[in-house]
Amino acid sequence: MAFPQQRLRRTRRTSALRSLVRETELSPQDFMYPMFVASGQEVDNEIPSMPGIRQMSINNAVAEAKRAHSLGIPGVLLFGIPESKDEAASGAYDPEGVIQLAVRAIKDAVPELLVVTDVCLCEYMSHGHCGVVDAERGEIMNDVSLELLARTAVSHAEAGADVVAPSDMMDGRVAALRADLDREGFEHTPILSYASKYASSFYGPFRDAAESAPEFGDRRGYQMDPANAREALREVGLDVEEGADMIMVKPALPYLDILRRVRETTDLPLAAYNVSGEFSMIKAAAEKGWLDEQSAVLEAMTGIKRAGAEVIFSYHAPDVARWLS
Ligand code: PBG
Fold first, then answer.
1. What are the beta bridge partners of residue 159?
2. What is d(CA 312, CA 246) in angstroms, rounded to the nearest whole number?
């Protein structure tokens, strides 16, 4: 009995042949590194639920951004932890806010490093929701939120952000950001839209890191139901029509089918966000000696790329870049 392709049998492959026929190859250039920038001086707080990840004041964030750049990582994604929060999320669009200052400092120190900013209100709202809340009805006010989000994006662009990334999931936000960016002279600033962002338990450690857990209720009113796939494609379609330049699927590992389907429906660059809980799971198992960290991480990242992501946002980025070099 003759087997087709028997000369490529896995038992016979040399390592050169294995790498010749390998379909997916990771590179440091596939990665973007999310960072938490805190207001204040000399802040360097390890986040207990995210081993190795820290809240850093701007001076330390600049040093960490330099390290990422020297490892061959093309860019960072910035989240801000402001000094104080209020009901209007005023820290989000303050020209002297923590993110605006951090963007300037990082672009000054490492101009070639891409700086992407997360555009959301939850870290700046006293109640921790991603939009403005109507206190009487306890509801998110979509359209009022859009104005603040667009203002936030413009302030990031003014500070020098290369790309703005809205993660709030309000309806119509890509169009709102695009209109204000264009009007203010930032018609060349691309929008990376978290087009399909699920209401996920895997954001738990992030909410410790960004101090952004909602005080009441949850985010299921605006983030997507994990049970829905076709809805993700509709969300992507809308964001593309509204002018998104890149698309994000988030989280990554429990949603690889979504990544694949989005890859097949749009030609825009596609990113996946390997979120905090996905990171912490592997870290925790590795600390217990239950998993080999390096091989587990590389396997997970390869899976995300194989599913269709050309950019992977991951807290593992510096480790991966080190292991690959
Ligand atoms: C803000 C935002 C969240 C994440 C990214 N942007 C948290 C949330 O929606 O609760 C999660 C990222 C992660 O878990 O690493 N809206």
1. none
2. 12
Collapsed DSSP state (helix, strand, coil) of residue 38: strand
- Residue 4: the pLDDT is 66
pLDDT 10s digits, 181-192: 999 999 999 999
Task: State mean pLDDT over 144-151.
Answer: 95
Rounded Cα gap, residues 92 and 82, in angstroms: 8
Where does ligand 1 bind, in terms of residues with CB under 6 Å?
Answer: 118, 120, 122, 130, 167-168, 203, 206-207, 219, 275-276
Active-site pick, 66, 85, 107, 250: 250
Does the pLDDT value for residue 228 go beyond 90?
A: yes
pLDDT of residue 63: 98
Q: Which residues touch 215 (CB under 8 Å, ≥6 apart)?
A: 126, 127, 128
**Backbone phi, psi, residue 245, to 5°:** -105, -25
H helices of the chain, where?
Answer: 15-20, 58-70, 90-93, 98-109, 142-159, 173-183, 204-209, 230-242, 256-265, 276-287, 293-307, 317-324
3-class DSSP string for 260-302: HHHHHHCCCCEEEEECHHHHHHHHHHHHCCCCCHHHHHHHHHH
Confidence category of residue 5, pLDDT binned at 50, 70, 90: low
Is 305 annotated as catalytic? Answer: no
CA of 53 to the centre of ligand 1 (A): 15
Domain 24-324: homologous superfamily in CATH: Aldolase class I (3.20.20.70)
Is residue 179 classed as helix, strand or coil in its secondary structure?
helix
Q: Residues 66-93: pLDDT tens digits?
A: 999 999 999 999 999 999 999 999 999 9
Q: How far is CA 62 from the centre of its chain?
A: 19
For residue 204, give the ligand 1 atom closest to its CA.
14
